Amino acid sequence: MHELSIVNSVVSSVTEWLAQRPERKVSVVTLRVGALSGVVEGALQFCYGIATDGTPLSGSVLRVHSQPVVIYCGGCAEQAELPGVQSFRCPRCGTPSSDVRNGRELEIESVEVEE
Ligand SMILES: [Zn+2]
Known about the structure:
By secondary structure, the chain is an alpha+beta fold. The chain has helices at 2-18, 41-52; strands spanning 25-34, 61-67, 70-73, 78-81, 100-102, 106-114.
């Protein structure tokens, strides 16, 4: 499963980061996930529970910070946020655009630890 390999890499990054802070326990991990990343939040959450079991992240909460798709519209000469991923047209003027500026993110935004 796509999501499981993503979660496994998140767990290993955070575990590595924690190696310098062995007295800390992770409480929340926040991921920034773009609408075009192809990741399903429900599947991520499901896999997170499995992948963190027996690791220093066990019992922590996964937060998913969804990011909208942002295109650059030549017609408006500015960036526009798309309401969905079905149509790559400017929501203001309707000009099609393939100039995607945002929406493919898949990264760890923050890690919260208990003191
Ligand atoms: Zn436009």
